[in-house]
Design a protein that fits this description.
Blueprint (H helix, E strand, L loop, with lengths): L2 H20 L1 H7 L2 H29 L2 H5 L3
């Protein structure tokens, strides 16, 4: 993977995780507590997987991209 593709992967991974996390306040307002908890756990799981399986391998290869991404 070249650096430009790595940047695109980081951008997509960060965007995806952030988009899900931005839903949390709305979910809390509109869902009953048990359904909210299910979504909260799912978002946490997905965000962790994005970090572990997508971002971390890219950052291992291109550590400077972590700083560029503000992480």
């Amino acid at each position: 993977m070249d650096r430009e593709l790595a940047r695109a992967v980081v951008a997509a991974g960060c965007h995806s995780a952030l988009a899900l996390q931005e839903l949390i306040p709305r979910l809390k307002q509109e869902l009953d507590p048990s359904e909210y908890d299910q979504f909260l756990k799912a978002i946490a799981t997905v965000s962790a997987e994005i970090s572990l399986e997508i971002l971390n391998p890219v950052f291992k290869r291109y550590p400077e991209l972590r700083k560029e991404a503000g992480l």
